[in-house]
Amino acid sequence: MRVVLGVGGGIAAYKAALLLRLFTEAGHNVTVVPTESSKQFVGVATWEALSGNSVSSSVFDEVEKVNHVRLGHEADLIVVAPATADLLARAAGGQANDLLTNTLLMARGPVVFAPAMHTEMWAHPATTANVATLRSRGAVVLEPATGRLTGKDTGPGRLPEPEDIFTAALAAVEASRPAAAPGALAGTTVTITAGGTREPLDPVRFLGNRSSGKQGTALAVAALAAGARVRLIAAHMDVPAPDGVELIRVETALELRTAAHQAAADSDVVIMAAAVADFRPAQVVETKIKKRDDEADPVITLVRNPDILQELVHARDESGTGTPALIVGFAAETGDATSDVLEYGRKKLARKGCDLLVLNRVGKSLVFGQDETEVRILSPADSAEDAVESAAGTKAEVSARILARITAELAARRS
Asked: 189-414 has which CATH code?
């Protein structure tokens, strides 16, 4: 996603650097447009180093690129943080006396303002009127936080935390995007895998994962709403399967593999949203493994489970039938010192060969079991980083967006 981060001239400008990092670490392409006064607080070198893009505040820089028009036209999202009283006034009045206000006038996507100023400025009737004007035009103006301000003052007017601005901005983007139209998948069979597989060690214990099945069931609900016939292959889930689906219960990765291959034969779309164990115990003990003081601790040998997604793609390509028309994978990734989440996602997409890959960053408090998520939807055609589609919000909202993308991909293949 292409993001313009506008920075106003307030002491809270330093927090915008943390917001910038959130966007870039999530894989978004960010261009920072500071006002001249904001450079008194944070210099251009900081913005360029953190964003990886050149930074300007003047309409006369890089004239050949027509920046004052191009930036607003190309941006999927514009976020202004901090939005000072002066900047809100200039935006509401339609002024265009620097690069940022020009960009705001040219905006085609969502615009989010994160105010930061003294309490008296925020409460002033002029600011109240300017905020109302901006909101009436469709801009999102966040409420400032309450807390310590410059000096000893305390009250409303503090810049919201960068994480809160980031979440609100992604929600604004998601709200601007259409979902799959009702009936758009009528006559289409969609198979979805959901939940987490469990690989038995003995009759009591198993190897599992934190998947709750919420994303898979949300996808099933979205597919039903779009008019599809939905088959849900469910491993362990913390939530019930929605009414109206053809439900197939499985436990292990091998059971899910068999069910998925059988279901793919008459499916138009297969969405592999389940968290399938990469490994299983080489042997399953028939009786409970006992803990005995006179014996050594047991050693569990693991073997690799088959790559079901890769197998489905291979089977389709080998058959020559083109069925399923669309195979969608899910990738739950964590970054490390070698690569970030997006880079790992691209490598996985190339390795699996699927048509779309839904990528999310996971952790103990991220994605698994949560009601909200953020994903990137990768396809082999999206070579440029800023061309990668993103979706954020509740898992229901994100599922609607994924189904909208699937509907568009199916239409393109059938035309």
From this structure: 3.40.50.10300
Please tell us whether the domain made up of 2-175 is placed in CATH 3.40.50.1950.
yes
Q: Is the pLDDT of residue 364 over 50?
A: no
Provide the annotated binding site. Answer: 278, 288, 306-309, 330, 348, 352
- CA neighbours within 13 Å on the CB side: how many for 299? 2
Phi, psi of 156 (to 5 degrees): -65, 140
Of 410, 409, 413, 407, the residue nearest 184 (C-alpha): 407
Task: Provide the angle, in degrees to the nearest 10, between the axes of the packed helices 253-264 and 308-319.
Answer: 30
Report yes or no: 192 and 223 within 8 Å, Cβ to Cβ: yes
Which whole-number Å values give the CA distances from 300 to 206, 285, 294, 297, 303, in the listed order?
12, 10, 18, 10, 10
CA atoms 96, 98, 102, 103: torsion sign: negative
Number of residues written out for the chain? 415
257 contacts: CB under 8 Å, gap ≥ 6 = 305, 306, 308, 311
Between CA 230 and CA 194 the distance in angstroms is 12
* Known binding positions for CTP: 278, 288, 306-309, 330, 348, 352
Q: Where are the domains positioned within the chain? A: 2-175, 189-414
Concerning whether 209 is annotated as a catalytic residue, the answer is yes
- Give the residue from 220, 188, 183 showing the smallest Cα distance to 399: 220
Catalytic one among 67, 102, 209, 360?
Answer: 209
Q: What is the pTM of this model?
A: 0.63
Task: Average the pLDDT over each of 266-275, 336-345, 404-413 and give the range with the smallest value.
Answer: 336-345
Q: 244-248, 273-277, 389-393: which has the minimum mean pLDDT? A: 389-393
In angstroms, the CA 379 to CA 350 distance is 9
Q: What is the DSSP letter of 181?
A: P
Q: How much is the pLDDT for 354?
A: 96
Beta bridge partners of 271: 192, 328
Give yes or no on whether 2-175 and 189-414 have one common fold.
yes
| Residue 187 CB neighbours (<10 A) | 9
